[in-house]
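Reviewers of the previous submission asked for a worked example of the structure-prediction workflow described in the proposal, so we include one complete record here. The input consisted solely of the amino acid sequence. No template or homolog information was supplied to the procedure at any stage.
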Amino acid sequence: MEWFILLMPLFQKWIENCQKRRSRSKIQNGLNNPGIMERWALRSVIREELGLSGRELREKVREGMTELRSASEDDVQELMDGVPAIAD
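From that input alone, the workflow returned the following structure tokens.
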């Protein structure tokens, strides 16, 4: 869970950008049941913010996905609450 807390600000930035293409409910559903889109988002965030590549990047993405899968719905809701909604 520590990893999830460290990544929350990075994910909030990603969610802000993602809202331009996906609804908040779809984003939240994806975070509750992470799949390929969330893996690529996590990879992008880690690569951009931490500057990792290669094996280190793969390991951090794997670790981050494990944390994301273990996050409770309340954790995801807290993350979503920290991101202002974009008006349509």
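The CA atoms of residues 43 and 58 lie 8 Å apart. We consider this example representative of the routine output the project will generate in years two and three.
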